[in-house]
Design brief:
The protein is an all-alpha fold. It has two domains: 85 residues, no CATH class; 85 residues. It contains nine helices and no strands.
Length: 189
């Protein structure tokens, strides 16, 4: 793309290119793209491109949107989701993920999140499960065979947060909220 491009050309490129390059319903699993750089971008784009090329396309679209002032610098997932909604992308399925993501406990947000100690602990456990799945570069809605065990083994190393049964309960809660799933779920039904 030319460095001498005008704002109106950028706006046109932004809408057309975004619609071409990113599937309408996978546009912005924003929290994952922005907070988890090793996330399988191909799962979001539905693309057969390698991860680096797909990530570069998404980041290019984000950069243009920021330059145009359509979104602020990516400080929260809700900024990205709001931008995508203004652009007319069908991303209603991200609302529940967005609400959950912004309430996940981290060491610096403990005091911001309401709820009981049990709820806060469970949210922290779910966040750890998602973090470990992303570190292993598993698509969250299609954890491969044996992947749940690898995630569990990694999580159980954190004795202060997990026990064997608390991992199972946190996994079930994350699954119930639509945040994680194994790829071969039908074989377990």
């Amino acid at each position: 793309m030319s460095k001498n491009i005008t704002k109106s050309n950028l706006e046109l490129w932004d809408v057309i290119e975004a619609k071409k390059q990113i599937t309408h319903d996978g546009l912005l699993d924003t929290a994952e793209v922005m907070n988890q750089p090793k996330y399988f971008i191909n799962q979001l784009t539905g693309s057969t491109l390698d991860k680096i090329a797909a990530e570069a396309r998404i980041n290019g679209i984000f950069d243009i949107a920021i330059k145009l002032g359509q979104i602020k610098d990516p400080d929260t997932p809700s900024n990205w989701i709001a931008w995508a909604k203004r652009k007319g992308f069908d991303i209603d399925h991200l609302d529940q993920f967005n609400n959950f993501q912004e309430s996940i406990l981290t060491s610096d947000t403990l005091e911001k999140v309401g709820g009981t100690d049990i709820e806060r602990r469970r949210n922290k456990q779910i966040a750890a499960i998602i973090e470990h799945a992303n570190a292993l570069e598993y698509p969250l809605m299609s954890i491969p065979y044996g992947g749940k065990k690898k995630i569990k083994d990694t999580c159980l190393k954190n004795f202060s947060l997990f026990t064997d049964s608390s991992f199972d309960h946190a996994w079930k809660e994350a699954k119930r909220k639509g945040l994680i799933e194994v790829e071969n779920i039908d074989s377990y039904r």
